Predict the structure.
Amino acid sequence: MAIQYKSIVPWGRSFDEYTRMFDLTASELNLRILGCGDGPASFNVECNRRGGRVTSVDPLYRFSRDAIEQRIAETYEEVLRQTCANQDKFIWNTIPSLEDLGSIRMEAMRCFLASYDDGRARGIYLPGELPDLPFADRTFDLALSSHFLFLYTDNLTFEFHVSAIREMLRVAHEVRIFPILDANARESRYLNGVLETFQKYKPEIRTVDYEFQRGGNRMLTLRNDRDAI
Ligand SMILES: C[S@@+](CC[C@H](N)C(=O)[O-])C[C@H]1O[C@@H](n2cnc3c(N)ncnc32)[C@H](O)[C@@H]1O
């Protein structure tokens, strides 16, 4: 049975996972970072607690804390059910079991929820969505997309991917996207077209120290070098 998400689900990863997925060095963690589609991930709150400068933008942030909590509870069953039916598409070493997956994700999402009202008031959780971001050109050093672009290949068009990446390159000097696989752990059918379209932005595929989807240990980086970081 294939993994099929009817919509894009709120499901959150931790600071440690973001650091490994995006190969973020200690000095990069101090850059002005924009998380596009960070949803209920705890990267923002955990990084900012360490002195970072992360802003997250997501359509989810239009909703109240209670509404997001409710949506996470509904998503939880659905994601675990589909992951259970597709266990061969994942590598169970760092996360050894479905139970561990559930508790690791819930811990990150509880951490996000606890920070949400304050973070929204401070403007570090901003409602908004790709491909139209509410920021001036070059507001950020680094724009990240975790588990949104490419992962939802079956829900989003190629044209959406191109517009979204163009927008991320407008607001940041560098863009990093993880993973480059779709929800069924196949290389996204959009990858080659994206590499061709953005050739002048020096696309590079880097192997990183993170793999949960089987074969999902590569990220795409693109640079808008008019003035480097
Ligand atoms: C699977 S979650 C990933 C959350 C987080 N990035 C992580 O890896 O833990 C996907 C997120 O994409 C968000 N999303 C959906 N449409 C979006 C859009 N057009 N622009 C930005 N984010 C979007 C959803 O609200 C959701 O929070």
